[in-house]
Design a protein that fits this description.
The complex is a heterodimer of chains A (873) and B (156).
Chain A (H helix, E strand, L loop, with lengths): L7 H12 L3 H21 L2 H17 L7 H9 L3 H14 L6 H13 L4 H14 L2 H14 L5 H17 L4 H11 L5 H17 L1 H24 L7 E2 L2 E2 L1 H15 L3 H17 L5 H16 L4 H15 L4 H14 L4 H5 L2 H8 L4 H14 L5 H14 L2 H18 L3 H15 L5 H13 L4 H14 L4 H20 L14 H13 L5 H17 L4 H10 L6 H15 L18 H9 L4 H7 L11 H17 L3 H10 L5 H9 L9 H5 L7 H19 L1 H8 L14 H8 L5 H5 L8 E5 L3 E8 L7 E10 L5 E9 L4 E5 L12 E10 L9 E9 L2 E9 L7
Antiparallel strand pairs in A: 1-2, 3-4, 4-5, 5-8, 6-9, 7-8, 9-10
Helix pairs in contact in A: 1-2, 1-3, 2-3, 3-4, 3-5, 4-5, 4-6, 5-7, 6-7, 6-8, 7-9, 8-9, 9-10, 9-11, 10-11, 10-12, 11-12, 11-13, 12-13, 12-14, 13-15, 14-15, 14-16, 15-16, 15-17, 16-17, 17-20, 19-20, 20-22, 21-22, 21-23, 22-23, 23-24, 23-25, 24-26, 24-31, 24-34, 25-26, 26-27, 26-28, ...
Chain B lengths: L1 H9 L5 E8 L4 E6 L5 H16 L8 E4 L2 E8 L2 E7 L5 H19 L4 H6 L1 H11 E2 L2 E2 L4 H14 L1
Antiparallel strand pairs in B: 1-2, 1-5, 3-4, 4-5, 6-7
Helix pairs in contact in B: 3-6, 5-6
Classes of the chains: A alpha+beta (873), B alpha+beta (156).
Chain lengths: 873, 156
Amino acid sequence: MNSIFSGTRLRDMIRSIRACKTAAEERGVVRKECADIRASINENDPHDRHRNLAKLMFIHMLGYPTHFGQMECLKLIASPGFPEKRIGYLGLMLLLDERQEVLMLVTNSLKQDLNHTNQYVVGLALCALGNICSAEMARDLAPEVERLIQFRDPNIRKKAALCSTRIVRKVPDLAENFINAASSLLKEKHHGVLITGVQLCYELCTINDEALEYFRKKCTEGLIKTLRDITNSAYQPEYDVAGITDPFLHIRLLKLLRVLGHGDADASDLMTDILAQVATKTESNKNAGNAVLYECVETIMAIEDTSSLRVLAINILGRFLSNRDNNIRYVALNMLMKAIAFDDQAVQRHRVTILECVKDPDASIRKRALELVSLLVNENNVKQLTKELIDYLEISDEDFKEDLSAKICSIVEKFSPEKIWYIDQMLKVLSEAGKFVKDDVWHALIVVISNASELHGYTVRALYKAVLTYSEQETLVRVAIWCIGEYGDLLVNNVGMLGIEDPITVTESDAVDVVEDAITRHNSDMTTKAMALVALLKLSSRFPSISERIKDIIVKQKGSLLLEMQQRAIEFNSIVDRHKNIRWSSLVERMPVLDEATFNVRRAGSLPASVSTMAKPSVSIPNGVAAAPLVDLLDLGSDDIMAAPSSSGADFLQDLLGVDLGSSSAQSGATPGPKAGADLLMDILSIGTPSPAQNNTSSIDLLSTAGINNNPSNALDTLSSPAPPHIATTASAGGMFDLLDGLSPSPSKEATNGPAYPPIVAYESSTLKIEFTFSKPSGNPQETNVQATFINLSPNTFTDFIFQAAVPKFLQLHLDPASSNTLPASGNITQNLRVTNSQHGKKSLVMRMRIGYKLNGKDVLEEGQINNFPRGL
Amino acid sequence: RSEKRTQKALEGKMGIRFILMVNKQGQTRLAQYYEWLTLEQRRALEGEIVRKCLARNDQQCSFVEHRNYKIVYRRYASLFFMVGVDDDENELAILEFIHLLVETMDKHFGNVCELDIMFHLEKAHFMLEEMVMNGCIVETSKANILSPIQLMDKAH
């Protein structure tokens, strides 16, 4: 051995790397070696180059950067000796890629070597070119390669052929130059030349239509003969694999015949005999034979219809499928997926076996089989297949449940023959793999349930039973508590019993237990808890006898660590408090039927939210026109929570809730945020709103809007209350009370001033505070007198004080002069404003303001928006 | 239309996309890529594949689907041979190819082992060069594959 080749230092390096115990140690060794190699490169000793590059290849293989050695490759390639060239080209292929500039420098060396007198050097250059050449190099060197396809030594011809496949792939325009040379290769006897020649023809056919036509016309028969010859050839030890002569060549030939036969009946006809022969005569007890059979089946399925051959192919696949070798079963499943396109019936016959494969312990086989099963499903077999899959879901590995449940859901959704079956199957999936089910799937289930009015009772009872057993399946719990909230009365009264049901005895308290369980379980997530709270609110109306207990559960959530839950508990509690005095039960009316079409559109994500929200009609609401929006609102909370984790959830529930609040509120639901005045939906649930006062303002606005959009008198009838006077002073219930009280139509109430409209702090900064007090002149409910008091919080005097205000179009504002334009330290001045609200009862007051003054001679400007006017002004 | 076909032909479809030899501990001992991946991509890919393949047992099939690759692998003593191919490649043929590769190396090294490949990395690559070019099989005769290598050994 040459001393350079076996260079002890290379061996030393490998040994020391092997001896490393940790990755850090290895990095240390490699770093030191790289430093040595750099130093050695700088010394530029030609004798070290070979060894340096060999080391670099090793380091590169370990996954460390070696770019600094790239130029060394070029130097080695340019050196005259064969060993240097050989390692140089190897380094070139391993360390460089076609995108690197360095590669351009090598084109000239390659050109010289392609014309070298030593054919081994020519071989090296061809190999390198074939592996890494860029489009530019391909153009430059194509003539050399084309010439080498005719070279006297077959070992050069085969490399030139494969090099050409790379060239025509890089520069498809060059394809026609190679057609003749390629067809001449097909006549060769040397296997290496044949296999590469066939590969080149295959490549040309996929790139160039003329080439395809040419080979189809001129070469089909020759290729068939070649295939027949090797199939029938006598034993050739050099190429024999398990009794088959060169299975690799078989496979390449079958691949090329596939391209030639595809879409051409004549060519397909020609190859029928040989394909039949390969399909029937090939030994199938060894892998090599099966590889050939597998390729043959694929070719039979791709060429033009020759039905007798296809029967043969399907039979082979059937045999494969029942083989004990997992590899063979895997490829059978793979191929059956392609076979389904032309012979569904034949594949259906293997359904039972395929279903068995879904349960295979091998993940690769399971995955393939599951894909195949989903293609096998049709209207006729969906029930049986789904049953099989669901049965398996119960016992499958945890890590397979996600894939499996997703497939079952998509099958059930796509082929469901009737709603009750759909609901049944979905409940089973949710029970077994609820934690893997995606949001859009259970959302869809709720939409379907909502639409199946005759199944409401059945569904809620089924869910109740399921959730008792599978309480750890989050999505099952969500659907169950939603249904119990909506249809709890049907659950306890056994309403709408179907013949197939056994009557169950569920007390109101049992139903509440389920919801309580969901809200108190520590691993329930926010969405589930929020949905449970809404369900409780609804149940407190459905089950008046235990409303006290329900209230207690709600009250407990005031101590929740989740802000959203806290706030919601407080709000809901206020509603429940008013329960006996206000005819509010329409507030927790059952959800209107959810529109499936809108949901599906939304699920597909193709419509902007606001459009379909507006399009949702409210006519389907059974009673209490004005109540619908409110119901929606209360439910919307769960939506907004879900908006955080998944955007589709947000879209969906807005839809699910069928919000019909008129333009302003619908808009706000869809695009929360930008318009302060339109934040109604967000505000009423106080989501992302810091000020509870602001909340109130928006609530009244919302209620008013709802009333107007439908029927004002109806709205007021439904919502307004006799409003006992003491309520006005109940601080804890203030917010909610205002909400309801504001709608009171009683004129006497509006005529009174003072206590009905508590003063507000309209603005406060570090230096200035503004308070508003309100009074209503009798006889004109639209008009409000506001007295503004400006208080100087700073130790300095403000001079040239001026207060300016702006209001939206529906308001008119009249400003009286201020009591003074100088605001002494800690003193105050007042100013009267008169606001006329043309939308009184529909919209509440809102105002922008600007205050200017001079402080120590300097101009100061403060601005703000006042949103916290009491409702009803 | 021809342009479309060209585009399609250019997207992958190169048969073998990489060949890896990995020991039982999951350390790469030879890596030959026929498409360009950055160092980071290679490390990540090798790590993922090795984890997947090494976790499987002998009874399970030799194919693993990973990203857009299909990995055909086979274990010989302490060494895993893994070949990444396109989706429409004949998996059984690749398995046969791995066997041919091992037989060829056996013929040269005499019962090839991890150390043979480590200490003769360039020679293992030369053999691979004679067998595969640009992701396609060049030669299937062991004698033809080895003759240039033996010739070189004799020359020195």
